[in-house]
Design goal:
Elements: H1 5-8, H2 15-47, H3 55-101, H4 111-153, H5 158-170, H6 176-202, H7 204-209, H8 213-266, H9 271-297, H10 299-312, E1 334-341, E2 351-358, E3 363-367, H11 374-381, E4 389-394, E5 397-398, H12 404-409, E6 411-414, H13 425-429, H14 438-447, H15 451-455, H16 474-488, E7 492-496, H17 504-517, E8 522-526, E9 538-543, E10 546-551, H18 553-559, H19 562-570
Parallel strand pairs: 3-8, 3-9, 6-7, 7-8
Antiparallel strand pairs: 1-2, 1-4, 4-5, 9-10
Helix pairs in contact: 2-3, 2-4, 2-9, 3-4, 4-6, 4-9, 4-10, 5-8, 5-9, 6-8, 6-10, 8-9, 14-16
């Protein structure tokens, strides 16, 4: 009888439907009472030889059975409706909270474990809330009423029923703590297996290339074996609970029957009373038996409760305390002011006193060696994390003043690791702008250098992409992501290694066309390949988390510093003019 606080709070998602399911379940229990009374009267008449007066009673019994069938159907429908509503609203709540947690949450949590909680865990809550909780309430409400009726007919029968009822309800509580621990271990193992399977599916190309499919299979087999052991360990405890409950039910029924028969032989109870006690004894313990059955149906939800609570109560890395809406009338001026940042896992500063300005409507490039902190700047701009010192402003206003939703809508990002959804090309492009006309899609695709390849497909923009664009090359995925960002028409455009998977010819075409399509936007370009940044209005050179130099391409090359070394190191044959 584990009632987890996290599962109790889910009742608020469908209070009326759950109340209806509970009341209907109580009404079904009352029909069992009515049937017991009618059958006791019928059996008493048979015992007295009054068989000619049985038909009205039997007709009434059939009517009660019919009413119970209707009530049972209505109860199941109400329970299904309540469970579905709880499931949908709880999952929506968790997904919305996961969105608030942002990408930083998945740096410490495994995606497969989160998926297991969102899908399997929430599905388990359905049966717990819609079946177990209503039955729990009925179990505490109905037996006392029936015991009062038994006491009115034959008080001595309570000597068998009350101890049995208490044993069935309270006896298994001795195992609740152990059962909860076994359930937690089972769910943890279940989550780990789900996470490993998802990781193996996503990493299948790498596993095959490394010849590690066999080792991965062995690890999954070990996880499956661990889940089997956890399931058996849980069932051992659960079956003790069930066995004790069944013993109490059978023993209590038998004891009540013996006491009723003894009373009948002494003449202290009428035939009708004896039959009534015999039938009511079974009905007193029926809710307890049904509760045991529904507990097993909803046990997965009880096991998943801790995982659901952990996800729901996780605190975002950044707090959404802003109240202003990021709706700039023109391209905003972006400024990093003495920004310092270090990841919690290392404690070292990734950025040290970074200060520079990206002028409104201009293109500012950020370059530097790997580990210089370039992508970290983008993460801070999107407020996936906040700096420990300094601030970032847009049009002179601290970005923490803006609501997270409006800030991120105002910044379009194309990153090196693009994500495309299992949907049509048009739907993928319209991700940030669902109402964009088809002509706008074509303009954005042309600017990203991908339109001709889309048009060559049999279905064109209606072509359904594989999961994460698996049917496309890396360069095609990046260009689609670039087109999506251009279509979003945000005032700030961030290109974080946006052409790293594109060949040099196409990259040159994109770089050539960018000034036209980025007009009216403040553009931040992060790149390793310097051909993508040489035409930027301003170039910021990072080294070791600090700003090494700021200037235009020509002046930086002439200064003979880190930028010159980067240009020289990245120059290919025939690119001598790059240093000019």
């Amino acid at each position: 009888m584990i009632v987890h606080p996290e599962l109790r709070r889910t009742v608020r998602h469908a209070p009326r439907a759950l109340l209806a399911a509970t009341l209907l379940l109580g009404a079904v229990a009352l029909t069992h009472l009515a049937q017991a009374v009618l059958l006791s009267l019928a059996l008493a008449r048979v015992a007295r030889g009054e068989t000619d007066r049985l038909l009205p009673l039997l007709g009434a019994v059939l009517a009660v059975v019919a009413v119970r069938a209707v009530l049972g159907l209505a109860q199941r429908r109400a329970a299904v409706r309540a469970g579905a509503r709880v499931r949908v609203r709880l999952r929506d709540e968790l997904v919305a909270h996961l969105g608030r947690l942002g990408p930083a949450h998945l740096t410490t949590a495994r995606a497969g474990a989160v998926r297991t909680t969102l899908v399997d865990g929430v599905e388990g809550v359905d049966a717990y809330v819609s079946r177990y909780l209503p039955q729990l309430l009925v179990t505490f409400a109905v037996p006392p009423v029936l015991l009062a009726l038994v006491a009115a007919v034959e008080p001595r029968a309570l000597l068998g029923l009350v101890p049995a009822l208490l044993l069935a309800l309270l006896g298994p509580r001795a195992w609740d703590r152990l059962l909860a621990r076994r359930g937690g271990e089972h769910w943890d193992t279940y989550e780990e297996l789900g996470a490993d399977y998802l990781e193996a599916l996503q990493g299948m190309p790498a596993l095959r290339a490394a010849g590690a499919v066999g080792r991965s299979r062995q690890r999954l087999e070990a996880r499956s074996a661990a889940l089997h052991r956890a399931t058996v360990a849980k069932l051992r405890v659960s079956l003790v609970d069930t066995g004790l409950t069944d013993l109490a039910i059978q023993g209590g029924t038998a004891a009540a029957a013996l006491l009723a028969c003894w009373s009948a032989t002494t003449g202290s109870t009428t035939a009708t009373g004896t039959y009534l006690v015999l039938l009511l004894a079974a009905e007193c313990l029926r809710p307890v038996r049904d509760l045991s059955r529904e507990w097993h149906a909803g046990y997965l939800g009880a096991s998943a409760a801790d995982g659901i609570a952990a996800l729901r109560t996780s605190e975002p890395v950044v707090a959404d305390t802003g109240t202003a809406t990021a709706a700039w009338s023109g391209p905003p001026r972006l400024r990093f002011e003495n920004v310092e940042f270090g990841y919690d896992t290392t404690g070292e500063r990734v950025l040290r006193g970074v200060t520079f300005t990206a002028e409104a409507g201009r293109t500012t490039a950020i370059v530097g060696p790997s580990g210089a902190g370039k992508s970290t700047l983008v993460s801070l701009l999107l407020r996936h994390r906040d700096p420990q010192h300094g601030r970032i402003t847009l049009d002179g206003r601290d970005i923490t003043d803006y609501t997270l939703d409006s800030l991120r809508r105002g910044i379009a990002v194309v990153s090196q690791e693009t994500h495309l959804f299992h949907a049509t090309i048009a739907d993928n492009l319209r991700l940030a702008r669902p109402d964009a006309p088809h002509t706008a899609l074509i303009r954005a695709a042309r600017a990203a250098g991908i339109h001709d390849e889309i048009a060559a497909l049999p279905e064109g923009y209606a072509t359904v992409l594989g999961e994460n664009g698996a049917t496309l090359s890396g360069g095609q995925r990046q260009r689609l992501a670039l087109a999506r960002a251009l279509l979003a028409d945000a005032r700030v455009l961030v290109l974080d290694e946006a052409t790293s998977a594109v060949d040099e010819r196409r990259e040159a075409d994109i770089v050539r066309d960018l000034p036209g399509v980025t007009r009216g936007r403040t553009v931040l370009v992060v790149a390793h390949r310097l051909t993508a940044v040489r035409h930027a209005d301003r170039i910021v050179v990072l080294d070791g988390g600090r700003v090494d130099a700021v200037g235009e391409h020509t002046s930086l090359v002439g200064a003979g510093g880190l930028y010159t070394r980067l240009v020289t190191a990245g120059r290919a044959p025939g690119e001598e003019e790059l240093a000019a």
